[in-house]
Amino acid sequence: MDVGEGDTLSVDATRSAYSPRIQQDMYEVDRDTFEGLVTAAVHDLPEAFRDRIANLEFIVEDWASSDDYARVGGGRGRTLLGVYRGIPLPRRHRGYHMTLPDRIVIFRQPIQRLARNEADLSKRVRHVVRHEVAHYFGISDERLREIDAY
Length: 150
Description:
This protein is of the alpha+beta class. The protein is built from 6 helices and 4 strands; from the N terminus they run E-H-H-E-H-E-E-H-H-H. The chain is 37% helix and 14% strand. It has a 4-stranded mixed β-sheet, sandwiched between helices. Helix 1 (31-43) crosses helix 5 (118-136).
């Protein structure tokens, strides 16, 4: 399976699970609370996956950078909710050692702009974390669509 670095979850890709429409009312929390939601989402991953995660860090940034958009070929009108910055497990070879951790970045502001309330925010964070972890394991956006993970 061919997996590109930096496959991402975007508003466009989540049409069936979440409305891509940005709402006027957003549910906003402070950074520590949002990071706590990300931590909880990671702890809620199935044990079989969580136990196989190594050399990976989860971070929160407010917005995607122009480099993130360039990496994923994102264009006008696309909003990134998260991104995997690294080499997926199936593409790592013997030379992959003593490297800095890969990163899963969750973008706080666009997720909050979509959220209606605390429960919705938590659900969206969990969905984005799982999506990006799938990329860490080498699962492409196309395959996620095939297995109806959106």
